[in-house]
Amino acid sequence: MLEIDDRPSEEVSYHVRLLDEACLLAALNTGGMDRFLWQPQRLTYKGHEFLDTIRDGEVWRRTKAGAEKAGVAGL
């Protein structure tokens, strides 16, 4: 299972699912019918393209500024 310091596993799993829905990651729900547990499998082509784009410092700065303005925390 993917673990991130100071974040509940349910929150990490939820964001993995969102990245899968956005086609940035390929992921599987390994939790079954009674548990919500999404596991990343691989970064997709679209995910690699996204990372290449945000590696540009100016693009990342504008992305963070826009997210903060929209009220998105944690970027």
Automatic annotation (TrEMBL):
It comes from the Bacteria. This is Uncharacterized protein. Keywords: Plasmid. It comes from Pseudomonas savastanoi pv. phaseolicola (strain 1448A / Race 6). InterPro entries: DUF2513.
